[in-house]
UniProtKB/TrEMBL annotation:
Subcellular location: Cell outer membrane
GO CC aspect terms: cell outer membrane
Annotated SUPFAM superfamilies: TPR-like
Family the UniProt entry places it in: Belongs to the SusD family.
Gene3D superfamilies (alphabetical): 1.25.40.390
UniProt-listed InterPro entries: SusD-like_N, SusD_RagB_dom, TPR-like_helical_dom_sf
Span of domain SusD-like N-terminal: 42-222
Protein name per Swiss-Prot or TrEMBL: Membrane protein
Keywords associated with the record: Cell outer membrane, Membrane, Signal
Domain RagB/SusD: 357-500
Length: 500
């Protein structure tokens, strides 16, 4: 079983898991802090509390990256859903609850990480094992970097907060330049690489490892290296592809990970923590409120009804785009596993639109559609191989033959026996699209590759049969608006992102 989440359920009762609305960096009271951080176990539980803020991350990644991209044509039929304005590039997204949650949840995680880090400094004698103390600091810093990186990719400039602050102090913190936020992210991940463990015993699976930190840092360098589009977003045109390459090579050389075959076994409920997984968000089920929600989010309620699963609610279908459906070559096993093509439900009503079902196993569900016992894989070995190919194509040391070999390893596992030659960046991004469909990577891949405006503006007129998408899609749409709730906290503290 997954010990991290057993600990979290108890830790949240102490009050550290309460939702901080907006950018609320209110510190835990001195009394509660003194009574909690008494020994190493307390610090471990506090770090687990930082991990727990990842629970809703897969849902947000799906909405803000997949639904935003050419993988989904998310126009509803039963009223406007929260995800529909994201698909449509609406100018009103500053009030969207999904966008607001991306801000709130990331800063909640940062608050928890900062609390742990501050207490490690304030209580230097509580943990007597130096290696354990360094590891716990590394885990907190890894997670803080993860949250800030997600904020950069979502909002561009954000407030940079490295310690717990009072509400009055928070109101003095403006948005920092993207470069400054990246500096903290890189520093935190470098410390994590030096001090995290290579691997963990079963009881601690799910904790970040050295390879997890290497992989996320490589993703950071690839993202920073992407074009800036004339906005203050995640790309800085920094050309740091050569910094990503050795990190990816270190993961490959560690021999701790490999491609898992067949493709479906990567996501099997009885094969979690397999050789392909480098970092994931850990869940368990049983009706205790700590199972995953994202598999049920991707599938509509009418499908569950047709399958004889009486789940509550009225979740509408989020259709896979025809463009993605038509992109899979014959024999690609990823298509049938990732996408459910159609179904018939009550009174023989036929639903012709396809939806993602990559993480869905009806027989493995918990008590309802909010309780799935499957981990969400944030970083896996196939991504490392394809990021290496990307770094080489963008100018890092390597040959076109190496690129072809890396891409063809992934294609071969997908059942595609005809190898590609002279793979270019556009082809690579299409391979990534099919490999990682429904995994929250597509929008970010398009942005950092420099293809996002070209691809989306070619796609939207063809796919948008109901003329709902705000066209043309511009550079201002690459990042999301600062939530209205944050803009209203203190007049003039933040300037809204252009276009909203």
């Amino acid at each position: 079983m997954k010990k991290i989440y057993y600990i979290i359920s108890g830790f949240l009762l102490l009050g550290l898991g309460a939702c901080e609305d907006e950018l609320n960096q209110v510190p835990i009271s001195d009394a509660s802090t003194a009574s909690f951080y008494r020994n190493a176990t307390d610090f471990e539980q506090a770090v687990n509390g930082v991990y727990s803020t990842l629970r809703g991350y897969p849902d947000r990644a799906f909405y803000l990256s997949e639904v935003r991209s050419d993988n989904v044509y998310g126009v509803g039929e039963a009223g406007v859903r929260d995800w529909e304005p994201i698909n449509n590039f609406a100018a009103t997204l500053a009030t969207n609850p999904i966008v607001k949650d991306a801000w709130d949840s990331n800063y909640q995680g940062i608050f928890r990480a900062n609390t742990v880090l501050d207490q490690l400094v304030a209580r230097p004698d509580v943990i007597t094992d130096e290696n354990l103390e360094n590891r716990l600091e590394a885990e907190a810093r890894f997670l803080r970097a993860f949250f800030y990186f997600d904020l950069i990719r979502t909002f561009g400039k954000v407030p940079l907060i490295e310690h717990t602050l009072t509400p009055e102090e928070v109101l003095l913190v403006p948005r920092s330049p993207v470069a400054e936020v990246y500096n903290l992210v890189i520093s935190d991940l470098e410390f994590a690489i030096q001090n995290l463990d290579e691997t963990y015993a079963v009881v601690n699976r799910g904790r970040a490892t050295k390879n997890a930190a290497r992989g996320i840092l490589a993703r950071v360098y690839l993202t920073r290296s992407g074009p800036n589009y004339g906005i203050e977003g995640p790309g800085m045109a920094s050309g740091e592809y050569s910094k990503a390459l050795p990190l990816l090579n270190d993961i490959i050389a560690s021999n701790r990970h490999s491609l898992v075959s067949p493709y479906s076994r990567i996501f099997a409920y009885d094969n979690e923590n397999n050789a392909e997984v480098i970092f994931d968000v850990q869940y368990r089920s049983g009706g205790l409120g700590i199972g995953a929600t994202f598999p049920g989010t991707m599938a509509p309620t009418t499908y569950f009804s047709a399958a004889g699963i009486p789940f509550a609610g009225n979740l509408e279908i989020i259709p896979v785009s025809n463009n993605l459906l038509n992109s899979y070559p014959a024999g690609d096993v990823r298509k049938s596993f990732t996408i459910h093509p159609n179904y018939t439900y009550v009174n023989r009503v036929f639903e012709p639109r396809a939806f993602f079902r990559k993480y869905l196993n009806e027989t493995g569900r918990g008590q309802d559609r909010f309780d799935w016992p499957i981990n969400y894989i944030e970083l896996r070995y196939a991504d490392v191989l394809l990021m290496k190919a990307e770094a080489i194509l963008q100018g890092a040391a390597g040959t076109r033959a190496e690129v072809d070999n890396l891409v063809n390893q992934v294609r071969s596992r997908a059942g595609l026996t005809t190898p590609l030659t002279n793979v270019d960046l556009r082809q690579l991004m299409e391979e990534r699209r099919r490999e990682f469909a429904a995994e929250g990577l597509r929008w970010h891949d398009l942005v950092r590759s420099g293809l996002v405006l070209e691809v989306m503006n070619a796609w939207a007129p063809q796919e948008d049969i109901r003329n709902q998408i705000r066209k043309p899609i511009t550079a201002n749409h690459i990042i999301y608006p600062i939530p209205t709730s944050e803009m209203d906290v203190k007049e003039g503290l933040y300037e809204q992102n252009p276009g909203y």
